[in-house]
Amino acid sequence: MILFLRWNHGVGGDIMQFRSIRTKFLASLLPVMLIGFLAFFGISYKMASNMLIDSADTIGKGVGKQAALEVQRLFETNEVHLEILAEDNAILHGSDEEKLAALQEVQSQTEVFSNVAYLDRNGVGFDTESGSVDRSDRGYFKQAVQTQKTAISGPIIATSG
Questions:
Q1: Which of 27, 43, 65 is the last residue of a domain?
Q2: Integer Cα distance of 116 and 107 in angstroms
Q3: Does the model's pTM come out above 0.85?
């Protein structure tokens, strides 16, 4: 299609005139279609963006809940290992070597504990890493003595330098 424009410098005030009806129709319809397309594009983009953000939020919350349940399951499983160890005959009545062997066995079966320790009622005992320890001043030891239940210390952050 060829568009012919004629410049009219006459007195009528019309600066530009179209010759055919098709051209006039196209000239009036084209801006409407262009504005409609841009509006449709903008609305579609905004809706898709909002749906993507909502979807990411939902997925993030689901993954967070799943991870929390997995961590809880892992700690409950390892707490059961410690409770079984606390009732073990080697821990209750064995020698220090038997107690250390029982501690090392439980440590090899657990997934998160880097160290397992045996402490008497005074907080003195030994662990699988460094041997003799005194933990009578630690919060988890005091909690275990007061509540008579298994106590697990918080994560330990090692500092160097």
A1: 65
A2: 6
A3: no
